[in-house]
Design a protein that fits this description.
The structure is a single chain. The protein is an alpha/beta fold and 363 residues long. It folds into two domains: 190 residues, Rossmann fold (3-Layer(aba) Sandwich), CATH 3.40.50.720; 165 residues, N-(1-d-carboxylethyl)-l-norvaline Dehydrogenase, domain 2 (Orthogonal Bundle). The chain has 17 helices and twelve strands. The strands form two sheets. It has an eight-stranded mixed β-sheet with strand order 5-2-1-6-7-8-11-12, sandwiched between helices. A hairpin with a 3-residue loop joins strand 3 and strand 4. The mean pLDDT is 93.
Length: 363
C-alpha cells in the first residue's frame, strides 16, 4: 500500500519505519517551516530499538506536499494539534478523491477538517478519521533512531462522519500496528483522549520544579502525590459526567490504560507511581510551555469544558486547570482553544448532534 505520514517527529518516524518493515511504500513528509528530523535522516534510513528492533529504509522523504500526497491511499497526520488545521488547508488542493486522511491523537481535528471539505464542496471526496492516540510510547534519541518503549494493544477510532468508520478500519486494519475499535463518533473518541486527564494537572502541580528548567525527574512516579492523584480522579469524574450528558458511557482513565497496556492498578496513585511503561525514562517537560499544557488544555480540555457548559454543566476542577494554565502561559485558553459546542453545535439538540456526527448533516 502507498502510505504517507505527515510529520517527522517521534511518532511519525516510528510509524514510517514500522510500516516500511512490512514492505509498504512509505513517504515521510515534513513542512519546510517545521522540518523536525527530516533533514538529518541519512539516506532515508531509520532504526528502531526497544519493543521493535530493526533497521529499514523509507521509500521517500520530502518537504513537497504535492509529492507527499500523490497516489497515497492512506495519509496519517502525526503533528502537534495546533498544526493540524493549517497543514490540512495546505494539503487540500492536492488531495485526491478516495484518499483517507487519518489523524493520530486527533483531538477532534476531523470535525474541523470536514468543515473545510464542506466549504470546498469536497466532503464526499475524502475519508476522514481520528485515532485516539499514537500507537506507540516512543522517543527519538536522534534523527533516524527511535526507541519504542511500548505499543498500545487497542486504540479507538472514529470517522467523520461516523457512517464511514468501518470502511476506514477495514482499509487500515492490515497494517496499523494496534487493534482498532470503533467509537460511536468523533465526540465520544475525543472525550476519551487520555493526555488531558493526566498531563495538565501534573504540570500545574509541578510548575515550580519544571519552570526552573533544571534536572529532569520522573514525571509520573516523582511528580504525582496522593493529593495530585485525587485531583486527576476528580477531573476524570467530571469528564465522564459530560460524556453522560451526550449519551456516552465513558470508561475511566484506569480502564483506558488497562485497554492500552494490559495493566491493572487499584488506584490512580498506584498507576502513576508504578506503571512500568510511564516510568522507564525521565520523560519530564523542561518548560511550562510544553505541549502537556499548550496542546492538551486548549485542544482537549477546553472542548470538554465547552461541551459541558453548553448543556449547563459547570466543571469546577476542569475550569480551574484551564484558568491556571492560561495564567501560567500568559494566554486565554478559553478564548484560543477549541470551543467545540460554540463552533459546531449552537442551537442543535442532542439528536441533531448525533445525526450530524453520523451523516455530516443535521437535517
Amino acid at each position: 500500500m502507498n502510505i504517507t505520514i505527515i510529520g517527522c517527529g517521534h511518532g511519525g518516524q516510528a510509524l514510517a519505519a514500522h510500516l516500511s518493515f512490512s514492505q509498504h511504500q512509505v513517504t515521510l513528509y515534513a513542512d519546510e517551516a517545521h522540518p523536525g528530523f527530516i533533514d538529518k535522516i541519512s539516506n532515508n534510513f531509520i532504526s528502531l530499538e526497544g519493543k521493535i528492533v530493526g533497521e529499514t529504509t523509507v521509500a521517500c522523504l520530502t518537504k513537497d506536499i504535492s509529492v507527499a500526497l500523490k497516489d497515497a491511499e492512506v495519509i496519517y497526520i502525526s503533528l502537534p494539534t495546533d498544526a493540524h488545521l493549517p497543514q490540512f488547508r495546505k494539503m487540500l488542493p492536492w488531495l485526491q478523491k478516495g484518499q483517507m486522511v487519518i489523524t493520530l491523537a486527533g483531538n477532534f481535528s476531523s470535525l474541523y477538517f470536514y468543515r473545510e471539505l464542506a466549504l470546498a464542496g469536497r466532503e464526499k471526496d475524502i475519508y476522514l478519521a481520528d485515532i485516539a492516540s499514537l500507537p506507540y510510547a516512543c522517543r527519538a534519541h536522534q534523527a533516524g533512531k527511535i526507541s519504542i518503549i511500548d505499543i498500545k494493544r487497542v486504540i479507538d477510532i472514529a470517522a467523520m462522519p461516523s457512517q464511514h468508520t468501518e470502511k476506514v478500519i477495514n482499509k487500515i486494519r492490515g497494517h496499523f500496528p494496534t487493534e482498532l475499535t470503533a467509537s460511536e463518533n468523533i465526540l465520544e473518541l475525543g472525550l476519551n483522549i487520555t493526555s488531558a486527564i493526566s498531563h495538565p494537572a501534573i504540570m500545574l502541580m509541578n510548575a515550580g520544579r519544571i519552570g526552573k528548567g533544571e534536572e529532569e525527574f520522573y514525571f509520573y512516579k516523582q511528580g504525582v502525590s496522593r493529593e495530585i492523584a485525587n485531583i486527576i480522579e476528580r477531573l476524570d469524574n467530571e469528564r465522564q459526567k459530560i460524556g453522560r450528558l451526550f449519551g456516552f458511557s465513558l470508561p475511566g482513565y484506569l480502564d483506558i490504560m488497562e485497554k492500552f497496556y494490559a495493566v491493572k492498578y487499584p488506584s490512580y496513585y498506584d498507576f502513576f507511581t508504578r506503571s512500568l511503561v510511564h516510568n522507564q525514562q525521565k520523560l519530564c517537560p523542561t518548560s511550562v510551555s510544553n505541549r502537556y499544557l499548550s496542546q492538551d488544555v486548549p485542544y482537549v480540555m477546553v472542548p470538554w469544558y465547552n461541551l459541558g457548559l453548553s448543556l449547563g454543566c459547570e466543571s469546577a476542577v476542569m475550569r480551574s486547570i484551564i484558568d491556571l494554565s492560561s495564567v501560567l502561559n500568559n494566554t486565554c485558553y478559553h478564548r484560543n482553544g477549541r470551543t467545540l459546542a460554540d463552533d459546531f453545535f449552537c442551537k442543535m439538540s442532542i439528536p441533531d448532534i448525533s445525526q450530524y456526527m453520523l451523516t455530516g448533516s443535521a437535517n
